[in-house]
Amino acid sequence: MSSPCDPRYAPAGDVDGALMVIDSRLRAVQDGRTGTDPEQQKLLDQLTASLDLRGVHDLLDGACTLVFIFMKWLRQVHEEHDRDVIEYVVPSLVVTLRMMPRSVRPEAIPTMAGLVIAAGTGLSPSLWRRQYGDWTKEEMTALEATALLLAEHINRIAGDRDFATRMIGETLSRADREAGPGFDGVGDAGGTGGR
Q1: Residue 171 CB partners (closer than 8 Å, separation 6+)
Q2: Ranges of Gly residues compositional bias (predicted)?
Q3: How far apart are CA 109 and CA 163, in angstroms?
Q4: Are the CB atoms for 23 and 70 separated by under 8 Å?
Q5: 178: Cβ–Cβ under 8 A, 6 or more apart, which residues?
Q6: Taking the CA of residue 160 as centre, how many other CA atoms within 13 Å lie in the half-sphere pointing to its CB?
Q7: How far is CA 3 from the centre of its chain?
Q8: Considering the entire predicted model, what is its pTM?
Q9: What is the b/e burial string over 35-66, where b = at least 16 CB atoms within 10 angstroms of the residue's CB?
């Protein structure tokens, strides 16, 4: 029986926008900066200023798509070593989120754990979250932090500081090629379904 949280029923959202945000934050963390590069910040400010309510929801769906793809990759890597991705990823993610009290409110952490567990079990984090109503402001910030931490975790495993963002870029390029003319740039993200 199909789940209402099956990824094929979920919108991919604005994956490009979400990736731009995460990549910008990753570069700041990797370079040891406390803020975003001024040029990158200008682009982020332009992106957020251009968003209406629909754009915000698309960006949130895009971030959930990133979480889904990151967890799919992590699940495959952990399964190669007979490990459960949830057992190895979720506890360290929760601990790290708890160490970020200025950015991530404690009440948002259980939701982020649920999102990651949903993605780790092959469900759409976006559809899983929709069951509980509208996103809160605290959850939006926590979602950004969650995607960032998963990307950084992937980069450490791969031994390549750009691996996670390059993997998403390649997935999107592959989806564009497979979809052919008339593709709107969102679609299936390389066989992951919607998110």
Answers
A1: 69, 189, 190, 192
A2: 182-195
A3: 26
A4: no
A5: 188, 190
A6: 7
A7: 21
A8: 0.84
A9: ebeeebeeebeebeeeeeeeeebbbbbbbbbb
Tens of pLDDT along the chain (195 residues)? Answer: 578 899 999 999 999 989 988 988 888 777 776 555 666 667 666 766 677 778 889 999 999 999 999 999 999 999 999 999 999 999 999 999 999 999 899 999 999 999 999 999 999 999 999 999 999 989 999 999 999 999 999 999 999 999 999 999 898 888 778 876 544 444 333 333 444
- Integer angstrom CA distances of residue 129 from 78, 113, 125, 126, 154: 25, 11, 6, 5, 23
**Rounded (to 5) percent helix, strand, coil in the chain:** 70, 0, 30
Q: What is the total residue count of the chain?
A: 195
Beta-carbon contacts of residue 82 (< 8 Å; ≥ 6 apart): none
Domain regions of the chain by residue span: 7-178
Select from 17, 15, 20 the least CA-distant residue to 50.
Answer: 17
